[in-house]
Amino acid sequence: MPATSPAYSQDAALPYIGRFAPTPSGYLHFGSLLAALASYLDAHHRQGTWLVRMEDLDLPRNKRGAAEHILATLAAFGMHPQGEVWVQSERQLLYQQQIQALIDQGHAYYCDCSRSDLSPYQGIYPGTCRDRNLPPAKDHAVRIRTDNSVDGHYSFIDRLQGHYSQHLPSELGDFVIRRRDGIVAYQLAVVMDDIAQGVTDVVRGADLLDSTPRQLHLYALLGVRPPRYLHTPLVVRQQGEKLSKRLGSKPLDPALASVTLYKALAALYQAPPAELHGAPPAEQLAWGAAHWDPSRLPVTREILQDQLPAV
């Protein structure tokens, strides 16, 4: 199994398939609009397919009606998925079957370590349960081994951020693919879904850059070539907090779609012309797709909200 591949990317000849995968724990806000818009523009600029997937596995965090509200908001902003909207909670059996296969193959194992057990290790799992051969139990997590690759390094070339590398055994250790509460972890579900949907390009916020080596490890274990990646900078408040539902960022107002979409194009450093201000969303999206150039974005993980281009 290859551990290091600076050329991790899909075959450029494959038809482009991208996606936006929100979590329905709340309504869309300006930060999530930027993520949706970047993925939409990238797909349409390449004459590709743009999908939407609801990543709702953390059921206790889901907000009633949020999934429907997200789709309605995207539609108000002119962004319509080109295919069925997948819902992760409907794919639980597939995830569980894959987890069992990874356990049977010796790539994963049960773990009963608590947070207090792991607190001295500062986020790097020490391998406590790796060779304990714990039996299945509902309150046990499942971890994926990171010590069984050639040298543990996973590298890729991000289309904006450039070269990124992580040595999983020493920087993270064996990571969780099913939590102790039984919820399937994001890392496994997102890889399985992207494989199943044939996703060739992932455009998402730079807060997920650190997750990518874990996902590359899973792609290698599953024997599938990973997609190309583009991690766009997050817009953060002065205090360094990203715009988020948890921190009470204002939901998007569909009645202000034209004005807000223009601001989003500007916030993605696409320099929309003044005459586009207030134009219908479809017209703005058509211009954005035709002129999309992610290289205009600054090569950074975060941008202060008050330093965005003025409109």
UniProtKB/TrEMBL annotation:
A motif ('KMSKS' region) lies at residues 242-246. The keyword NAD does not apply. The keyword Ribonucleoprotein does not apply. Its cofactor is Zn(2+). Its EC number is 6.1.1.-. It comes from the Bacteria. Binds 1 zinc ion per subunit. InterPro entries: Glu-Q_tRNA(Asp)_Synthase, Glu/Gln-tRNA-synth, Glu/Gln-tRNA-synth_Ib_cat-dom, GluQ/Sye, Rossmann-like_a/b/a_fold. ATP binds at residue 245. Belongs to the class-I aminoacyl-tRNA synthetase family. GluQ subfamily. This is Glutamyl-Q tRNA(Asp) synthetase. It comes from Halopseudomonas laoshanensis. The lineage of its organism: Bacteria, Pseudomonadati, Pseudomonadota, Gammaproteobacteria, Pseudomonadales.
